[in-house]
Structure prediction request, 314 residues.
Amino acid sequence: MFLKSKRAAIAAAVCAIAGGAAAAPAAQAAEPAPVYGPQQLAFLGAFSYSIAHYSPNLVPPGTNNWSCRPTAANPTPVVLVHGTWENAYDNWAYIAPRLQASGECVYALNYSTKNAPFNGTGSIKASAGELATFVDKVLAQTGASKVDIVGHSQGAMMPRAYIKYYGGASKVKNLVALNGTQSGTTLDGIGTLGNELKVMSGVAGVIGDAARDQVVGSPFLTDLNAGGMTVSSVRYTAIATKYDEVTTPYTNAFITDNRSGAYVKNITLQDGCGTNFAEHLSEPYSARTLYFVKQALGLSVPPTPTCDIQLPIF
Prediction:
């Protein structure tokens, strides 16, 4: 866990950070060629690869094929949204190619890239605007009317800002949220993530507005959650691990204020599977997580959930 002696330094850095044009139509400009990394079975391998080979267009295999067209069996494109200090490749190098192999058109964006490859550091509301532009591009290219969103950590909560502030309520069918900071996290959780990703040496320069926005009780979260966490037109599935050391307490990853009466399903990864010790960063690399993601998206899965042996990354 993050040393408590550093909490004051992190708090000061967070508080010191200041508070926080639509893209041209896709048909008018050539899409940048994706740079594909290899499939990965664990976060550390994907993380190391992304550090050594990062480019703005680095994405996991199976994503960003702009000629993909939805089918009757798979009518809704999937958009993958990475977490704080992560990127499209290291977050999704396991799940993305497996969703594509199931017949999905899969897309992943790198957003808030000022501190690349440690992306997702800027104002979450601004990042939600980037997601809005990306979703519009996916819809324009595929001809679909809605997308499914699968997000991790900040990327599991930030799409709710897109839904609330940028018209996403009419464009999102499913939001599948892995370890999302739905009700925020503690400074210890933010510090732990920074320590594990080795970005804490330059706290004030790297920690970013996104970290401040995710602290429990932040003005951003207070406004985002005012009136409830859901809209009735979107289906929500929240998947949490009880070993989460970043979204703390782990139950803050759940959708708990459902005033709209939307479909909501909250899942604890270890319920019924005592061999799964996935924590925050390794959860997207768990076969059990993949099972519940595919189930939430309406893809074919066995009747009994996968129970894998999944270890924490450290």
Observations:
- The first helix runs from residue 7 to 16.
- Residues 1-28, 200-205 have pLDDT under 50 and may be disordered.
